[in-house]
Design goal:
five-stranded mixed beta sheet; mainly beta; elongated; six-stranded mixed beta sheet
Length: 222
């Protein structure tokens, strides 16, 4: 600009053109929850991670498209919500597949939509060991017991850390009811395992998906 005496001045500003929407991922602690009050998998933590500040709503939707739970959030790159399997009225939802739908906009008003599936599955009602520890070298054994609410294809395995020690059942069709198996402390090759902490993992697969429960047991030295 210039005034009548031709005195000149100038100013400049930078304008950012942003047509790229935020990249949004939806991590969660587990793909299922079993809100039966036993203290195991009664809740699931649903997460949101965005490549830039992003604000909007997170909704849990049933198979018919109805919203069972909703959260609103201000622009952020990280958010999380804990779901206890209840709808907005405080009632437990039925076992089924649900969709976490996150929609919103970044600061440039670019919109993003991201989806993830979370299952409510109370097929496995209990998993217990008859004792917390035992000594196989002295002939002791431990009894595994678990119960199913409905028919399922069940896999039962024993692990030490991430290592598979013994596969007990693989995709075995079981009806609703109580089941058991006795462990003598031997691996799949029939050899006594080393002392340490082991865990049994019971996985039940139904039309909703898969749910898995683990319980630990300690093998001791004679």
């Amino acid at each position: 600009t210039a005034d009548a005496s031709n005195n000149r001045a100038s100013v400049q500003k930078f304008v950012t053109v942003d047509r790229r929407p935020a990249t949004v991922s939806l991590p969660m602690t587990s793909g299922f929850l079993s809100p039966n009050g036993d203290g195991h998998n009664d809740t699931v933590t649903l997460g949101m991670r965005a490549s830039e500040a992003f604000g909007g709503t997170a909704r849990l939707i049933d198979r018919h498209g109805a919203t069972v739970r909703k959260w609103s959030f201000l622009p952020s790159t990280v958010r999380s919500w804990i779901w206890n399997g209840r709808n907005t009225a405080g009632n437990l939802v039925p076992d089924d597949r649900y969709t976490l739908l996150v929609t919103g906009r970044d600061r440039a008003s670019n919109s993003s939509v991201s989806k993830a599936t979370v299952n409510v599955d109370r097929t496995i009602t209990s998993v217990t060991w008859s004792r917390s520890s035992f000594i196989p070298g002295r002939g002791q054994k431990a009894r595994l017991a678990f119960a199913l609410r409905r028919q399922a294809s069940v896999t039962v395995s024993i692990y030490r850390g991430p290592t598979l020690i013994r596969r007990i059942w693989a995709d075995r069709a079981l009806a609703a009811g109580a089941f058991g198996w006795t462990w003598d402390g031997r691996n799949g090759a029939g050899v006594l395992v080393a002392p340490g902490t082991y865990r049994v993992v019971v996985t039940a697969r139904i039309w909703i998906g898969s749910s898995a429960f683990a319980r630990s047991i300690v093998v001791k030295t004679p």
